[in-house]
Amino acid sequence: MRAHLVGEHLQRLQDQLSRTQAAVASLRRLLSPEPAGAAVELRHAPARRVAAVRGTVTHDEVLSWYAGAMAELGAVIDAPAGPAGGLYDNALFSEGRGDVLVYVPVAVPVPDLGRVHGTELPPAELAVTVHTGSHDTIDVTYGELGRWVADHALAVAGPVRETYLVGPRDTPAAEEWRTEIGWPVFRVAGAGAHPV
Predict the structure, then answer these.
(1) Could you count the other beta carbons within 10 Å of the beta carbon of residue 13?
(2) Number of folded domains in the chain?
């Protein structure tokens, strides 16, 4: 019994150490970013029919809320018409609480069932880049994209769009995850793809 309790305590400490190490690595990247290799592309995202779950959550709740919402979508939608995604209100990042909408694209309208409802994403002009790897360091990619937007385009009010090209639902190998981040912008004359 004692060995079991000590083992559980050790596991909690190791998990806490892993989270702390990831946070330290992320902060180091913010202070001394690696040489830029990511590209930013200006892209028009057309309107899109989706099945979605919407909620207002705190920053601390967003991961567990996301997991539950995606499980509900997976139970209702057998064959999505593309990768899952999410719209994240700016207030979630700036104030710690905001609206979130996670979705899967669908080819035909879907009936409302529980929290799942059919809706259409509005068209948007986006500055887009891809974050590769664990979500522990996605804040660095957000920072790089935000810097690019400030340097090259005028950001507009509107939710940030994420598209989960490859994620935890596809593979447990975090190094293979790819999250596309789209920041709503006004196009700047002559702007195109640029390195971050």
Answers:
(1) 10
(2) 2
Longest CA span, the chain = 69
Number of alpha carbons in the 13 Å side-chain half-sphere of residue 140? 23
CA distances (Å), 54 to each of 22, 103, 106, 140, in order?
29, 9, 16, 26
User: Could you tell me if 148 and 182 lie in one domain?
Assistant: yes
Whole-structure pTM value: 0.75
29 phi and psi angles, rounded to 5 deg: -65, -35
Give yes or no: residues 80 and 25 share one domain.
no
Calpha distance 80→22 (Å, rounded): 33
Both structure tokens of 170: 């596809």
Same domain, 187 and 99: yes
Note the pLDDT of residue 111.
Answer: 87
Which CATH number does the domain housing residue 128 bear?
Answer: 3.20.80.10
Query: How far apart, in Å, are the Cα atoms of 14 and each of 59, 63, 136, 168, 174?
Result: 23, 20, 16, 21, 18
Q: For the segment 120-171, what is each residue's pLDDT rounded down to a tens digit?
A: 999 999 999 999 998 888 888 988 888 888 887 666 768 999 999 998 888 9
For residue 23, give its domain range. 1-32
Radius of gyration of the chain (CA): 19
CA separation (Å) from 96 to 23, 131, 141, 151, 170?
18, 22, 19, 26, 28
- In sequence order, the 6+-apart residues with CB closer than 8 A to the CB of 137 are 22, 25, 26, 29, 131
